[in-house]
Design brief:
The chain is mainly alpha-helical. Helix content is 33%, strand content 4%. The chain contains 6 helices and 2 strands, in the order H-H-H-H-H-E-H-E.
């Protein structure tokens, strides 16, 4: 039995719909942008602080005696170094707090560990640790997927003054003059 003219038009419409939708689908997939390239590997970051060192006594900075051969080897391998850096404060706590936050000591207020002494506002010196409102370099690196470690021979850096925030693991001297117990 021959098919009716309305069925033929229905079949032709259906075939036409399939051909058009297939063409659109092929065009869509042909015009898709390529996938983004894989992300570049993150560089290693080693932050070395030489507490109380003078750059004019580093052979890396032109001193006549070979006082910094290991630093020179790091720089030869591509590490960045500057001979004209200046500490933001005269001692460890405020300087390290500034290194780790990028804030001036007058902003982060980490500048006193003498217990029991009160300043002119009546604030106890014990409260003069690094404010939590300033994220540290270690915290920011950790957010970017870095593993963070701290190694320090200065007990101030290992104390509860906020300088260890963001370090997953850390080793610091427990007293002056001793690197590790």
């Amino acid at each position: 039995m021959p098919s009716s003219p309305s069925h033929r038009w229905l079949w032709m419409d259906l075939v036409l719909i399939l051909v058009v939708s297939g063409s659109i689908g092929v065009g869509f997939f042909m015009k898709r942008p390529p996938p983004p390239p894989p992300p570049e590997p993150q560089p290693n970051v080693v932050f070395i602080v030489l507490d109380t060192i003078r750059s004019d006594h580093l052979s890396l900075c032109g001193y006549s005696r070979p006082t910094s051969p290991n630093l020179e080897a790091l720089v030869a391998d591509g590490a960045q170094f500057t001979c004209d850096a200046q500490a933001p404060a005269t001692w460890t706590l405020p300087s390290h707090a500034s290194f780790f936050t990028g804030q001036h000591p007058s902003a982060h207020h980490a500048h006193s560990i003498t217990s029991g002494v009160k300043d002119w506002e009546g604030t106890s010196a014990r409260s003069r640790k690094l404010k939590k409102e300033y994220p540290t370099l270690a915290e920011q690196l950790q957010e970017q997927g870095y593993q963070t470690r701290l190694l320090s021979s200065n007990p101030v850096v290992g104390s509860k003054l906020g300088l260890r925030r963001g370090f997953e693991k850390g080793r610091t001297a427990k007293s002056w003059g001793r690197l590790f117990d």
